[in-house]
Amino acid sequence: MAIVGHNNLNAKLVLLGDMGAGKSSLVLRFVKGQFLEFQESTIGAAFFSQTLAVSDATVKFEIWDTAGQERYHSLAPMYYRGAAAAIIVYDITSAESFARAKKWVQELQKQGNPNMVMALAGNKADLEDKRKVTAEESQQPNCPNSTSVSLKENQSLARSSMC
Ligand SMILES: Nc1nc2c(ncn2[C@@H]2O[C@H](COP(=O)(O)OP(=O)(O)OP(=O)(O)O)[C@@H](O)[C@H]2O)c(=O)[nH]1
Ligand SMILES: [Mg+2]
């Protein structure tokens, strides 16, 4: 996290996870408070920023929304390098997306900034009847408190937990 001026901080945040997990939906909720039923798949990566007042400081989040398609995997280090925080998103209706999320946690633990704050967010909680990743499974030893959210139903991101 870079200190820009008195109580003004810049924080780089990166979104990682399988394609279709909901990374862009999460950013759209955070930045514009919106949800799109047909969100287009991200190509390469997209950049957004959002400024929030946190206690007596102003934090400007510089957000990299990466593309989940496998062919973009090799670009990811460019986006997570130097990041203060990473949110790894998976889709609770897809076991593959959860397997991918676990790989991201491992990759960041090996290659990411050691002080990086990581959160694991199981998205699409509104599709509970199609759930493939149980709440127990999602409690990873290296990320023990993950919970699920629905970006569609505008549940708070605070419900996803820190690793
Ligand atoms: N039912 C439901 N659908 C969701 C939710 N969040 C996102 N979606 C839908 O899931 C689809 C994929 O969401 P995206 O945000 O594009 O996923 P992504 O992770 O950015 O995907 P890539 O850019 O391909 O890596 C979109 O059609 C969204 O509308 C949710 O909480 N519930
Ligand atoms: Mg996307």
UniProtKB/TrEMBL annotation:
Domain of life of the organism encoding this protein: Eukaryota
Signal peptide (from-to): none
Membrane-spanning intervals of the chain: none
A molecular function (GO) term: GTPase activity
CDD domains membership: Rab5_related
One protein family per Pfam: Ras
InterPro entries linked to this entry: P-loop_NTPase, Small_GTP-bd, Small_GTPase
Region (Disordered): 130-163
The keyword Nucleotide-binding appears for this protein: yes
Polar residues bias locations: 136-163
Entry keyword set: Nucleotide-binding
SUPFAM superfamilies on file: P-loop containing nucleoside triphosphate hydrolases
Name of this protein: Rab5
The organism's taxonomic lineage, starting at the top: Eukaryota, Viridiplantae, Streptophyta, Embryophyta, Tracheophyta
